[in-house]
Each structure stands twice: as structure tokens, then as C-alpha cells.
């Protein structure tokens, strides 16, 4: 899964077209296969801001649910480490993401407030 914000209307399609094409060429060369690797095209789905944070949590927790890592920020291809570091910088509590009750309380928070830190949803 990818959650991206395109810079213009068709940049997302162009980006994924190039990424799919180049990876397919690489894969086919390595495996000696020919033809398409991807079935169908990607599904771009605009997200309302309310659903964006839920989608980000879902994507960043996938490696944990799949048993690949114990914490999302340990997965090398995830944005989770960047987000956790941002939370740590705002809270000055060390490593709050390791505290399950802290993480669960984040469910009701959104980005905003001073320096982009988390604030209660609907509050400032």
C-alpha cells in the first residue's frame, strides 16, 4: 500500500506507471520471464482527511500484523519510524511508541497544534 499526495492531477499516474514499468523490467530480467508483472492498474482513491490517519495507521501496522517485525518503525520500507520520531520530538518522553497505552490514546489524536504535534481531534 502507498499513501501519497500528488503534486498535480496526473503526477500520481505517471509516477506509478514508471515505477511499475521499471520494476517489471528488472524482475523479468532477473527471472528470465517476459510480459506484464502487474495485473490491472493501481486504484487511486482520494481520502478525506478524517480517513487519512486511519489509512496511515493501517498501512504502517501491516508489517506487524504480518509478523515481519514487532514494531512498525522497525520495518525498513515504512514511514512509521519518521512518524514515531516526530511524536517523540513533540512529547520529550523518550520512546512513547513502545508504550501500548500511549499508542492507543493516539487513536483519538490528529496532527496539528504547535510544530505539527498531535492534538485531540476537533481541538487545537
Automatic annotation (TrEMBL):
Gene Ontology BP, a term: DNA transposition
SUPFAM superfamilies from the UniProt entry: Transposase IS200-like
InterPro entries: Transposase_17_sf
Listed GO MF terms: DNA binding; transposase activity
Domain of life: Bacteria
Name this polypeptide is given: Transposase
